[in-house]
Specification:
Layout lengths: L3 E10 L6 E11 L4 E5 L6 H8 L7 E6 L2 E2 L5 H10 E4 L3 H4 L6 H11 L5 H14 L16 H13 L5 E5 L7 H18 L2 E6 L2 H7 L2 E6 L2 E7 H6 L4 H8 L11 H7 L2
Helix pairs in contact: 4-5, 4-6, 6-7, 7-11
């Protein structure tokens, strides 16, 4: 059972009078097999939380545990386990993929780093991963520059799944995509999460997307979680003034989660 527990997480940038408390005593739980949304404007601290979970940013204080294991442990075995168990999907799929490697080479590399399968077994694994993200086998021979933004993000998701992670941190994964494909990528993530029983922390500034995909939602402002609850409740009955301002910015709030941006994906 993959459960993430964040307790009193603090991340401070700088020192002395110029220090910035980017994350301020954040506590959050991502239960096994659920999608938890983390919402906030740019500068709210949500991406710093994501990078800290993934091991890309050192915390100042607090604790972070996955299945009871300390993710801040610094031993080599601990780092290897963390790189396998926690995978991050980034906002821009093009910059996160090596432009000199084909899709097949990218996925084969991920399988080779975290496994000991033969070349033939890895080739079968590449085909399986492409099938999982609803891409045709011949995509393996193509390079990122030849793919659409939506296809590149699917490849990034496939690379993430190659190591069979327990937790996926998805940081603004649709914000760099055309509106016509954002819904399709959200649908894919939701289907994979249910199919593979993944735990997902879904980070975004888009409350409509969170309403559509997440089970529960936490709202961040100025480094702190100001509201937390079921995703539908957060959108329909926000209690904190900051959350209310975010909800007020959603076009046609009565259709949040099924607006044109997301509905277009349903037909893809």
């Amino acid at each position: 059972m993959a459960e993430l527990l964040i307790d009193d997480l603090v991340v401070v940038f700088g020192t002395g009078r110029t220090a910035v408390r980017a994350v301020d005593d954040v506590s959050l739980r991502v239960p096994h097999g659920t999608i938890v949304g983390l919402v906030g404007e740019s500068g709210s601290g949500k991406s710093t939380v994501a990078r800290t979970i993934a091991g890309l940013q050192q915390p100042t204080s607090g604790s972070l545990r996955l299945d009871g294991r300390d993710l801040f442990a610094r031993g080599r075995a601990d780092r290897l386990a963390r790189s396998r168990d926690v995978q991050m999907i980034f906002q821009d799929p093009y910059s996160s993929l090596n432009p000199r490697m084909s899709v097949g080479e990218t996925l084969d590399e991920a399988l080779a780093i975290h496994g000991d399968g033969t070349a033939k077994e890895r080739a079968a694994g590449v085909r399986e991963l492409l099938e999982l993200v609803r891409l045709k086998p011949d995509v393996a021979g193509q390079y990122p520059s030849h793919l659409s933004g939506g296809m590149r993000q699917r490849v990034a998701i496939a690379r993430c799944l190659a190591v069979r992670p327990k937790l996926i941190v998805a940081d603004e994964i649709t914000s760099a995509l055309d509106a016509s494909v954002q819904g399709a990528v959200l649908n894919l993530l939701r289907e994979l999460q249910r199919e593979l029983e993944l735990s997902v922390l879904f980070i975004t500034h888009n409350l409509a997307a969170v309403r559509y995909i997440a089970d529960t939602t936490a709202v961040m402002s100025r480094g702190r979680v100001v509201e937390h609850g079921p995703a539908a409740q957060i959108v329909e009955s926000p209690t904190h003034p900051y959350t209310q301002s975010l909800v007020a910015a959603i076009p046609r709030i009565e259709h949040a989660g099924t607006d044109h941006l997301l509905h277009a994906g349903l037909a893809s």
